[in-house]
Design a protein that fits this description.
about 750 residues, Beta-lactamase, 4 domains, 7-stranded mixed sheet, globular, transmembrane helix, membrane, serine-type D-Ala-D-Ala carboxypeptidase, PASTA_dom
Length: about 750
């Protein structure tokens, strides 16, 4: 009886508790069934989300072209290979959808990737052993080309699949890299999620990132646990909006001329820095711009110099500044070119240090101001500013030439120089380019007024923006006159003075004479500040430069070159590397642009027009091009040409390397080739190439004459020669190189 009583008491307690719990749980289930919501989360939406796959449809980044439509940057599709291993993925399928035979799969794929079969087999076996649904293959299968993917798909191996992606590719390698810049895949936050997207890091890629980038789309559909689409997948597709294309003013042919000669100068003289800019002075279009050190945007590792020195690195210009000093004096009406003055040294008063001419202050006796310009006299420049113009009026002209501000060029990272103009001595030394600093592009902009009848033009590198889908021009630039600091008459007089520095017996720029065109310009030998105070000393410790234009009566091309601290032997002068760059680019560039020579006596450079070469007889084609003076490299011993780095109708300069691939390609000897040429031949032959170092090729892993096939690995080591090769030189010094700041 006592036991039954206890049982009844416990039951009396538990039954109500269970009843309450039942009511609560039942009510909760009924609530969930009625509302479909748990903790504020809709079960229906949660289920949809779990069975919905969503993928980003990447917008294709816009291309970058030169002014003739040559592709300089584009998105190259790549593919990542992966393998499905779970046999359940093949359920209810007529054909297997997972890897059935790992050994056969590895044996067939490995040759197409240029690896041993074990590199494919081991990931497959490890995945099967660990009961993994799928496996990837790492670096060997992460960046496959479309051709590699297609070749693997043709094998029809079950379980082998690909994800598509893209990388930014620069077909010309180290070509205008400081202008083009580069883009890389980076993580960005989009709709609250972290996603990968190609973004511009430097140069035009960065400057025009929003224009080039486009807008990604997406695709979503419902699937089962094996990722198979449901019969009614509720598919939603949002198409991507591709980026727009950007056309530059850069001309591929002229830029190539610049790149090649800069590489040669690095090889010969090993300077600390080089800068070169080529401009159309009638429009302000920059046709070429390059610097050394540079980098390959396809692999921007160990970059020595990120800066585009032409726009971002001001320095004391030296005597190129005298162009604007003489222009100011002429325009102001205080210049008499035949008036004599005592050269050598000049001291305003006892409180101001004396100014010396660059030949240790010896001077040339009493000479005219015109001859002072020809001989690049610092004393003449100082007298013009202090005695003729006045320092305040001179400053007004410097400002009229916009030498105190940015040019506004459409490139990132522009830094203007600084007019140092606080003390009397600083005002005097500015007249011959010491103390104050300028960038090359500031000097080029100001010099357009000299070449263009007094009208100063805005420099620019972006020609137009084009809708990549429709081809419609969205925006197009035109020449923009931004000032008129001098008159047409003054400009003509300065052009005459510039020509005299090249042609006159005592001129400082005789080395810059062209064979077929009259040329004028001004050289500079600028001192380099010493971090410990004062200036560096020694024959090599200068920035040697030249700003010139041709034909001088009506300039069609203008070029600025500077070479910092080249390694010179006893017989060499700083003008040698500068003039090598200037004369090669200007002579060939003017011929390329079909500018009529204005000098008698020289044989004009004949451009080579490329005939129809594809599928033609290789021996006949090589003979034809060689007879025209072409630099031809034949790749292989086949009887037919199957591809080339030029197209029918192209015109090339004699020194450009023409690569002809035969139907039986073998490896040529590329020792001594540049990085650009090496990348070009690798692209033609569809080789996997690895570039080690920079400069010129010193080793190649594929021996000359070896039969090659697509996807072979080509490893090439490059070095900048440490020993400078000497060339015969004229031991007579030009006046500009005697001493000091010229």
């Amino acid at each position: 009886m006592r036991k039954n009583k206890t049982t009844h008491v416990i039951a009396g307690i538990l039954i109500p508790l269970f009843t309450i719990a039942f009511i609560v749980l039942t009510g909760r289930f009924m609530y969930i069934q009625a509302t479909g919501v748990v903790d504020g989360v809709s079960l229906e939406e949660w289920a949809k989300q779990k069975r919905t796959s969503s993928y980003t449809l990447h917008a294709e980044r816009g291309k970058i072209y030169d002014n003739n439509g040559m592709t300089l940057a584009y998105d190259r599709p790549i593919f990542r290979m992966y393998a499905i291993l779970d046999d359940k993925y093949s359920e209810n399928s007529e054909k297997p959808r997972h890897v059935e035979d790992p050994e056969k799969t590895a044996e067939l794929i490995a040759p197409l990737l240029g690896v041993e079969a074990d590199a494919i087999l081991q990931p497959l076996l490890n995945g099967i052993e660990n009961d993994r649904f799928q496996v990837e293959f790492g670096k060997i299968a992460n960046e496959l080309s479309q051709q590699q993917r297609d070749e693997i798909l043709e094998l029809k191996l079950p379980g082998i699949n690909f994800d598509k992606d893209s990388i930014r590719y620069y077909p010309n390698g180290m070509f205008a890299s400081h202008i083009i810049g580069f883009a890389r895949e980076t993580e960005v936050q989009e709709d609250g999620e972290i996603k990968n997207q190609i973004n511009g890091i430097a140069g035009i890629e960065n400057q025009m990132n929003d224009i080039l980038g486009g807008k990604n789309g997406y695709i979503s559909y419902q699937r089962d646990k094996y990722n198979k689409r449901l019969l009614n997948p509720n598919e939603i597709i949002q198409e991507p909006e591709n980026g727009n294309d950007v056309y530059l003013t850069i001309d591929q042919k002229i830029q190539t001329l610049v790149e090649d000669v800069l590489t040669e100068v690095v090889k010969e003289y090993n300077p600390k820095r080089i800068t070169a800019v080529v401009m159309d002075p009638k429009t302000g279009e920059v046709l070429a711009m390059s610097s050394r050190p540079s980098y390959n945007p396809n692999n921007p590792a160990n970059v020595e110099n990120w800066y585009n020195d032409a726009v971002s690195t001001p320095f004391e210009p030296g005597s190129t500044m005298k162009i604007f000093t003489w222009a100011a004096a002429i325009e102001e009406g205080v210049y008499n070119g035949s008036e004599g003055y005592q050269s050598g040294s000049y001291r305003v008063n006892e409180k101001i240090a004396a100014i010396h001419d660059h030949n240790n202050g010896k001077g040339w006796g009493t000479i005219s101001f015109d001859e002072g310009f020809e001989r690049s006299s610092n004393v003449a420049a100082a007298k013009l500013v202090w005695e003729k113009l006045g320092t305040e009026k001179y400053l007004e002209y410097l400002q009229a030439f916009d030498l105190d501000k940015n040019t506004g060029i459409d490139l990132p990272g522009e830094v203007a120089g600084h007019i140092l103009y606080n003390w009397p001595l600083e005002k005097i030394t500015t007249s011959f380019g010491q103390g104050s600093t300028l960038t090359p592009i500031q000097q080029m902009k100001a010099a357009t007024a000299i070449a263009n009848n007094g009208k100063m033009l805005q420099p620019y590198v972006i020609q137009k923006i084009v809708d990549s889908t429709t081809g419609d021009i969205i925006e197009e630039k035109a020449p923009n006159v931004v000032g008129e600091p001098i008159s047409e008459e003054t400009a003509k007089q300065v052009l005459t003075l510039l020509e005299s520095t090249v042609t006159a017996e005592g001129g400082t720029s005789g080395r810059y004479e062209l064979q077929d065109y009259s040329v004028g310009g001004k050289s500079g030998t600028a001192q380099i500040p010493n971090p410990n105070g004062g200036y560096l000393t020694g024959k090599e410790n200068y920035v040697f430069s030249f700003l010139g234009m041709a034909p001088i009566d009506d300039p069609q091309l203008m070029m600025y070159v500077s070479v910092q601290q080249p390694e010179l032997d006893e017989t060499q002068t700083g003008a040698m590397p500068v003039s090598f760059i200037f004369t090669n680019v200007m002579e060939n560039g003017l011929h390329y642009l079909n500018i009529d020579p204005d000098k008698d006596g020289g044989d004009p450079i004949k451009l080579i027009e490329i005939p129809n070469i594809i599928k033609g007889n290789s021996a006949d084609i090589v003979r034809n091009l060689t007879d025209q003076g072409a630099n031809v490299t034949t790749i292989g011993n086949g009887s037919r040409i199957v591809s080339a780095n030029v197209n029918e109708g192209d015109t090339v300069l004699p020194q450009e390397r023409i690569m002809l691939v035969t139907d039986e390609p073998t490896m040529p000897n590329i020792i001594g080739w540049s990085v650009r040429d090496t990348l070009e031949i690798a692209d033609l032959l569809k080789l996997k190439v690895e570039i080690l170092g920079n400069g010129f090729a010193v080793t190649q892993n594929i021996k000359e004459g070896t039969t090659i096939k697509e996807k072979d690995y080509l490893g090439v080591e490059f070095e900048v020669p440490s020993k400078i090769e000497e060339e015969p030189v004229d031991t007579a010094e030009t006046p500009e190189d005697d001493t000091g700041n010229e």
